Amino acid sequence: MPTSAHTSVHPSHLRGLTEVAAASVLWGTGGLAVQLIREQAPLSAVTISAWRMVLAALALLVALAVLRRLGDLVTLARARPRQLLAVGIGTAAYQGFYFVSVTQVGVAVATVVSLGLAPVLLTVAEAVRRRRSPAPSRLVVLGAALAGLVLVSLAGSEASTGPAPVAGVLLAVSSGTTYALTTVAGGSVSREAHPVVLTAGMTLVGALVLVPAAALADGPHVTADPVALAWLVHLGVLTMALAYVLLYSGLRVTEPSTAVTASLVEPVTAAVVAALVLEEPLGPAAVLGILLVLGAVAGLGRPATAAGPVVPDPELG
How far apart are CA 227 and CA 156, in angstroms? Predict the structure, then answer.
């Protein structure tokens, strides 16, 4: 006898949350990787993003060849061309908006606005679509996650907000909005396509967008430095290819608003990595923020408090 999704936790829901959280941990190492690359080679953020997307696409094409699923990529491109283009262009766009926002308003404000806006937008959108308010427990989880995000992002940050704060905030809003829309689009396609196939298609489209942009960027476009090359491979293979395979696998069984709330593990990971590798101190506010985010993500494991309903695993019918 099946059990109500609102009174029990389906294993696939927990699996999906774990996959999204794991993807977020990988994303959380990206900032450190970019910093270490730029210490070795004067590559622009756009150039690094382009290499990240290109290397991810190459790795995924090799994976598809090994899995004998290259034909599935062609089938997906023919069956859902608009959605695939939207996911690829959207992924490239929200990363671009975020990077430029950081230069204009600072990393703390850019992170809070761009990452914090997405779960709010999707929670509101789902409430409007279902014509009922989110459960109070769901709002508590979302509020705790956002409070934790603010504490982690602002703890230890400089008071300066950058040369163009208004433009920076608008770019961060654009990043968060695009991130939310792209997650919805990716979630829809992920329930029809294998995660590796979808991620390969997304990175190919993203590479086609970012490579021309990188060609117009100032500074060198390649490097022979072995340390920089190693971190570029890390960015492409782990923080892009593997992380998005995990995200799209998780989106098969979780709602987008649940996924973007769980992805707030990313700034938590970034703070912990900075403390461990760069010896940046974690103050009491940052520690409290980390605990709030982790507690909120743990709360998403309960269907009653998730930021969206449990979605049945498509592979289980």
Answer: 28
